[in-house]
Amino acid sequence: MDNEVHRGFETLAIHAGQEPDPTTGAVVPPIYQVSTYKQDGIGGLRGGYEYSRSANPTRTALEVCLAEIEAGTRGLAFASGLAGEDALIRAVCKPGDHVIIPNDAYGGTYRLFAKVAEPWGVEFDPVPLLDVAAVAAAVRPETKIVWVETPTNPLLAIADIRALAQIAHDAGALLVVDNTFASPYLQRPLELGADVVVHSTTKYIGGHSDVIGGALVVADEALGEQLAYHQNAMGAVAGPFDAWLTLRGIKTLGVRMDRHCANAERMVEMLTRHPAVREVLYPGLPGHPGHDVAAKQMRAFGGMVSFRMESEEAAVRVCERTKLFTLGESLGGVESLIEHPGRMTHASVAGSPLEVPADLVRLSVGIEDADDLLRDLRQALD
Ligand SMILES: *Cc1c(COP(=O)(O)O)cnc(C)c1O
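Structure tokens for the assembled complex are given below, as produced in the milestone run.
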């Protein structure tokens, strides 16, 4: 595309890494379902491709697109969000190092640190990231990563990316931001000083609950090289069809997020007034402790809404009574989902510092008709 053409977010989402195919003119990158590539003489690679674990053209299209929509220099696509996290931890840390993670980190991230990284020798401390002084106090000489999620899952706490980047960098550590809940349409951590963005592309980026995938995006080219080395050495890459599905999802990320956010606000409005609901957790609410920071670093407040009922039984009952909101784990797809974190997504952190309230309900608000969604939630609450 002509360099003179301005490329805003939605333009990048549709075109970055996806020039029409030079041989056929196809406007969508083909699914290169191939493992190896003919060499014109030993080492004579035609398009720079030799073996699809190292690189594959469909995955390259996705990786270029991810880098551009996150304002980074390098994107790397993995078989899952956790595969990307694993490659990142192994590339950056060695036994004896230390990591700070959110005290309400995604359960799988906590498990990766507690059951895989720690036995390997990497220590970690869960810290409430809202408390910048607590993060600064938890930093040690061995700290290599300050790991941030914002908004968090499922409590939707907000962390100040700029302030935490300062603390991490003063300590010689990297600031890693899991941007899964916000998506790059709502928040671009690299522009706020982060070093690495992590995604479960399974969620909003893919957006259709039809693919498992993960991504790392970095600002620094040398760090990008190091992560690419580990991606190839460890091998948990995104396959061509998964990469293609994810690219297709990205094209509509902006319009989907606008609707996710608008629908979420409608649910919040109703829930805050409903007598059976004790508390609504949503960063868009002026009373939310992270509201001001969220307003500063996010374009809008996202499609995830959590709320607390009077009891665990009441929370479970709501989850089992909705008809349009599907009872299920995961999030970020076009269809609305409801779940009970204490017994579902966060059952594995019961008894740990990351345990979540038993009366909590989590919604992933989809892009269906908002009035239909409101009716469904109301009948489940009444
Ligand atoms: C789902 C999720 C992950 C893990 O991603 P997978 O694709 O399931 O491996 C990591 N972080 C957050 C915030 C998530 O929601």
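The chain has 13 helices and twelve strands. The pocket of pyridoxal-5'-phosphate is lined by residues 80-82, 106, 108-109, 149, 153, 178, 180-181, 200, 202-203, 212, 214 (CB under 6 Å). Further analysis is deferred to the final report.
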